[in-house]
Design brief:
This protein is an alpha/beta fold. It is built from 7 helices and 7 strands, in the order βαβαβαβαβαβααβ. Helices cover 42% and strands 14% of the residues. Strand 5, helix 5 and strand 6 form a beta-alpha-beta unit. The longest helix is centred in the middle third of the chain and has 29 residues. Nicotinamide-adenine-dinucleotide binds next to helix 1.
Length: 269
């Protein structure tokens, strides 16, 4: 896709699932890729091996790679990461706010600490990353691009995942607010909203029976792939989307189309 080659992109939560596929897709499109990862003491060796693989893929595509360690729930980490990208790669041109977590509990039992954990990563973290990226965009004076990885739960309520639903609902408004505020400076802010996607966050995708049960509720009768999410992200970052801002692109096999209306119950038959 035109417009991505040579750009410097920071992908948060880039060592798993959708984030990993997005980083790989940007590499294929010729971008220089800053790969955000976290230091998990239990997985140091695995993480290092994976990062080395991802870096060599970026190099193999002709781009530069930059692993950047950091926790997006920590403001100081975010400031440092964005500085590092701008100074080591020369600029920060595209931010993909992908890092995300979810926690389940009946809403009347959810602790304040668990509520905060999810909001701090999914919403506050995404906002602070956007804030720092925008500072760099404005300083560089060439516009910039932010893509937020939201969810169908941006609009579909998700019982027992209230903090997750709130975080993605908030992300929709954040996408629109920042898009409006910075449109005159050539900064585009959009979101993708994946439906059910086969990644480590969804352990059930590895269980055939559970997967079939979920897929029976999806109009296209299958879960999505991380690569499909990455393709839409690349599109929104490319010159094919230069007049698109403040939008959420749903990539969900029809999940947000009121799937129950596939049956004729609404006509009273
Ligand atoms: P995943 O668990 O495979 O990946 C999540 C990534 O975020 C991991 O790399 C993890 O290390 C990183 N992360 C978590 N907390 C972090 C923190 N504090 N700082 C930095 N990185 C952190 O899950 P995924 O399915 O690839 O999810 C990626 C995004 O897609 C999330 O925002 C998620 O809400 C969204 N999403 C996923 C689905 C799905 O069905 N998989 C559906 C809709 C939206």
């Amino acid at each position: 896709m035109e417009g991505i080659k040579g750009k410097n992109v920071l992908v948060t939560g880039a060592t798993s699932g959708i984030g990993q596929a997005i980083a790989a897709r940007f590499a294929v499109e010729g971008a220089n890729v800053a790969i955000n990862y976290r230091n998990d003491p239990d997985k140091v060796k695995d993480t290092q091996e994976l990062i080395e693989q991802m870096c060599s893929q970026v190099r193999g595509c002709g781009g530069k790679e930059l692993p950047v360690e950091g926790d997006v729930s920590e403001e100081k980490d975010i400031i440092r990461m964005c500085e590092e990208v701008a100074s080591k790669l020369g600029s920060l041109d595209i931010l993909v706010n992908n890092a995300g977590i979810q926690m389940s509990a009946p809403s009347h039992e959810l602790t304040a600490a668990d509520f905060d954990k999810v909001i701090n990563v999914n919403l506050r973290g995404a906002y602070l990353c956007a804030r720092e990226a925008i500072k760099h965009f404005l300083k560089q004076g060439q516009g910039g691009i932010i893509i937020n990885v939201s969810s169908v739960h941006e609009i579909i309520p998700r019982p027992t995942y209230v903090s997750y639903s709130i975080s993605k609902g908030g992300m929709e408004n954040m996408t629109k607010t920042l898009a409006l505020e910075y449109a005159p400076q050539g900064i585009r802010v959009n979101a993708i909203a994946p439906g059910a996607t086969a990644t480590p966050i969804n352990k059930w995708t590895e269980d055939r029976q559970k997967r079939e049960e979920v897929e029976s509720h999806i109009p296209m009768r299958r879960v999505g792939t991380s690569e499909e999410m990455a393709a839409a992200t690349a599109f929104l970052a490319s010159d094919e989307a230069t007049y698109i801002t403040g939008q959420t692109l749903f990539i969900d096999g029809g999940l947000t189309l009121y799937a129950d209306f596939l049956e004729p119950w609404s006509a009273g038959e």
